[in-house]
Amino acid sequence: MTVSTSPSTEPPPRPLSLRSSVAVGSLRLVNRLSRRLGRGSGTVAGGRVGLAIDPRLLTVLAGGLQVALVSGTNGKTTTTRMLAAALAGPDDPPVASNQTGANMPAGHVAALVESPAAVVCVLEVDEGYLGRVIEEARPRVVVLLNLSRDQLDRIAEVRMLVDRWRTALSGLPAGTGSAGAPTVVVANADDPMVAWAAMTAPEVVWVGAGQVWRNDAVGCPACGGRIEFADQGGWACDRCTFRRPDRNAWLDGTTLVMADGTRLAVDIALPGQFNRANAAMAAMAAPIMGTHAGYPTGEGTPLTTAVALERVASVDEVAGRFAATVHRGHPVRLLLAKNPAGWTAIFDLLDETSPPETPLVLSINARIADGLDPSWLWDVPFERLVARTVVVTGDRRRDLDVRLRYAEVACTVVDDPVAAVERAVSLAAPADGASSPAVDFLGNYTAFAELRGRL
What's the whole-number mean pLDDT along residues 259-280? Predict the structure, then answer.
């Protein structure tokens, strides 16, 4: 996907070997057929074919580009969209990005093929593939958001991922990034697991972006001691010297505070403190991309964090997330969460943006894209929903019903997701006939996608 185009800055097409040319042509053909046949968005199938023909295709296509990678358990897609927006000024070079969420190498090569004129790319990267993509894409910036449990049936345990990240980042010599520049890691200093991994990188920008979910970071990765958290986000091991690094910037409510005392408003369209944290990470990464190798904004003016925040403010939905739709005259807000950390963050958002009387529909599936093991439901603090009108649906609605019973949250079970939305509206309808309130719908991957498609 190309975020912006600027004809005056488009470079000549990069020459490709015969093998790479065949791979690119095959990728385009397969993705075109996939879209026509309704077999997907046309981003992954072709990418797999292209990589089968030329396993070095990502390295070839990323060669000479300014590359930014974004990884973490939660917030990857949103932060990728924000960083791409921050880099896509009216006079800037084109920006390529896999903003549909296809975050493995097949999706990466497809995004680059779709944007042949791009000189900059921002790629969301699955946590398990980060080391490989760093090696192949030679990024200028790597943004690390957080690490917690996710998709328990196929994703490595958190500590294993931390060790893999740490090894990959320790292998970044100075000058390894795109165009020979050093790779800079922009890391969330408030997550001990991210900090442990990023400390091995040669150059790190530490951002205090907050950490909603701490249950996967209580054990010190350095010595096995206990991580103790302070009220203001600080943390330290109770046995060794491992503690939160000194921060270059941190989020204070709706303000990004720089180490020199500069304060910048984080005034964005997307709701929730976690999205302000995503915006802070993107805004701190953007100037690194925008001040190297002739990547200016406008008439030679370097991209600043303040300008990046202004551009990020324009992002009002990400692949349908946080979008509002209308079903039979009733507003419905669509929210996505996939693991305990994400659900906890969304509950914070509900407290911030939705009155207690707003009905809430919860939908849980356990399909391949979601992860087949829904036992994580028992780690979600559903007790926070006691005062709300709740309707549950989805393939695993019975599991969710049992979990809510133990949380002492009254709920109504409805088989069909659309019928569940309609039931939520009827349950909250005022007795005096006044207009019903909006409905919040919160689901994991396939549950969210299914309802979005049907509404």
Answer: 95
Q: 226-264 burial, b if ≥16 CB within 10 A, otherwise e? A: ebebeeebebbbeeeebbbeebbbbbeeeebbeeeeeeb
**Do the strands 95-97 and 120-124 form a parallel or antiparallel pair, or are they unpaired?**
parallel
Tokens standing for 34?
């996939």
Read off the pLDDT of residues 78-89 as tens digits, 9 standing for 90 and up: 999 999 999 988
User: What gap in Å lies between CA 391 and CA 411, rounded to an integer?
Assistant: 5
> Which residues of the chain form CATH 3.90.190.20?
324-454
The structure tokens listed for 116 are: 């042949």
Q: Where are the beta strands (DSSP E) in 273-389?
A: 324-327, 330-336, 360-363
The answer as to CATH 3.40.1190.10 being correct for domain 7-312 is: yes
State the architecture of 324-454 in CATH terms: Alpha-Beta Complex (3.90)
Query: Which tens digit of pLDDT belongs to each residue from 341-361?
Result: 999 999 999 998 888 888 999
- Outline which parts of the chain fall under CATH 3.40.1190.10: 7-312
How confident is the model at residue 6, as a pLDDT? 39
DSSP string spanning 319-337?
TTBT-EEEETTEEEEEEE-
| Cα 257 to the center of its chain, rounded Å | 22
